[in-house]
Amino acid sequence: MSQKPSFNEQKVISLLQDKESVRKGFEMIVCEYSEQLYWQIRRLVLSHDDANDILQNAFIKAWLNIDYFRGDAKISTWLYRIALNECLTFLSKQRATNNVPIDDPEASIIQKLESDTYFSGDKADLLLQKALLTLPEKQRMVFNLKYYQEMKYEEMSEIFGTSVGALKSSYHHAVKKIEKFVEEHD
Length: 186
Known about the structure:
Layout: H1 9-16, H2 22-45, H3 48-64, H4 75-97, H5 106-114, H6 123-133, H7 137-147, H8 153-160, H9 164-185
């Protein structure tokens, strides 16, 4: 099994800034970040097909705006910001186009998750996903980045444009809500 070459952020930024090598630099970004972005998106939208579509849209948006990336932020921060904005846009459109019951908006999403052939989780995973669906979207995003990606609050602060304190508070509230949900539904 071949191992992918190590990712050198400065080298990639240099490639992005040269018209002759921008495509190679972008291919390296796609190779480096596709899987982790996919899983971050998937945890928010739950569906494999939707996550693939959003990931593709995020990379298209990144490619179309590559000239505006100057290396002020880390590449991962820039990509996460694009991907999370794409998720928010998708979720807003989904709510607007689906006839989602006002009293139980998560029901259709949970039904979609339970019937998703790509979902390989056990009962505990399903319970956690249901608990996550009860969180406001931004709180869910903060929880996912901290819990699954083990992202530092400082990096999340750059992505969301929010203070570290507010993010810590958001994560703490998310954990408490999840714990309460699990206790009530276990």
